[in-house]
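Notebook p. 47: complex prediction with manganese (II) ion.
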Amino acid sequence: MKILHTADWHLGKKLNGFSRHNEQVLILDEICTIADNQKVDLVLVAGDLFDGPNPSSESTELFFKTLKRLSADGSRAVVAIAGNHDSPERIAAPEPLALACGIVLLGFPDALVPHFETEKGVKSTKAHPGFLEMELPGVQFPVRLILTPFANEVRLRKYLGQENATLELKNLLSSNWETLANDHCDNDGVNILMTHLYFVPETGEIEAESDDERSIAGLGGTDAFPVSMFPSQIQYVALGHIHKFWKVSSKPFPVVYSSSPLCYSLSEAGQEKFVLIVDAVPQKAVTLDKIKLENGKKVFRKTFDSVDETVSWLSENPDVLVELTVVSDEYLKTEDTKRIYAAHEGILDLIPKSRKQVLTLSNPAVPVDIQLDKIKLFEDFFKQKKGQNPSEELKELFFEILNSES
Ligand SMILES: [Mn+2]
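Predicted complex, structure tokens below:
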């Protein structure tokens, strides 16, 4: 059977105030086309479906349209779990409608999926809190899913004590997974685990979380978990949370972050984005295929030495999002700033930077002399604040303001 693994859609996400909605429409269309072309039997969406707990109607509509299309009129199963950005209640609310189409939406880690069956033959055959077994049309064996939406001390409060909640959470998850796997995951079916948490390898590389996700540990969230927590019956672990494609571990089975479909923060600048196609049969190692997504805008962080260089790069790369740093001797003039912004629609930020040493008020190069004339004082002040000389234009403006006040 073929499984499409995606995650971290973050519908409604803005980057430095830039709406990504139009890109999200295109990228989800691309994912639907891949699911059709690859003749996928099951789609897994590993959390952070929306960017926030109260998505707009625009994002909600896109979400349901996409799930409906992915479900191919009830002939393909679609399973989506809540991530840390999602409201678990809101994700779970449309369950009765969604199940009728073969779409499973899980909000809480202990959710129990009611029995469902579509006319085209997607059918639940067993369910426990956090576990679902299904029969799929054209697939000769059952697929078992251990499903854990984002879990932290808050969302699992009723199961955890007050002290050392993080360690308790780890023990609770691993013992729960172990029990579910022992009870339901034998060699007659395909056994998959999907969750939205931060996992790290037993040793070696640790992946930095993106700007967006870094704050989680501080928000009543969870620390990194080791991959050794997964039960041995599992053949593939579909993860969400880290926005970069990352195979956390490949033995004894792949534990993988699929990547988000778009670059959602500047720390993801330059990343390629993927969906994963997992080919699975009982008792065998799965095969994994990365399919690169093409429809998202590239995100860049660029530094240029002159305004001309900046403008020429911008005109050669019209369809990207970019954070610009422009290094110069003199502070950027208004006309320079205007020229740069006029050259491009996707400037996330424009950071002027001086070649000279930056002086600060706490460390001024010269003590302030109030006998100096006002223009000279303004120049010194500007130099201290910005580390550059004010332009003639700016000095003239200051002079004008001085005169108008007298
Ligand atoms: Mn995310």
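Notes: The first helix runs from residue 21 to 37. The chain has a mean pLDDT of 88.
Next step: compare against the earlier run before touching the bench.
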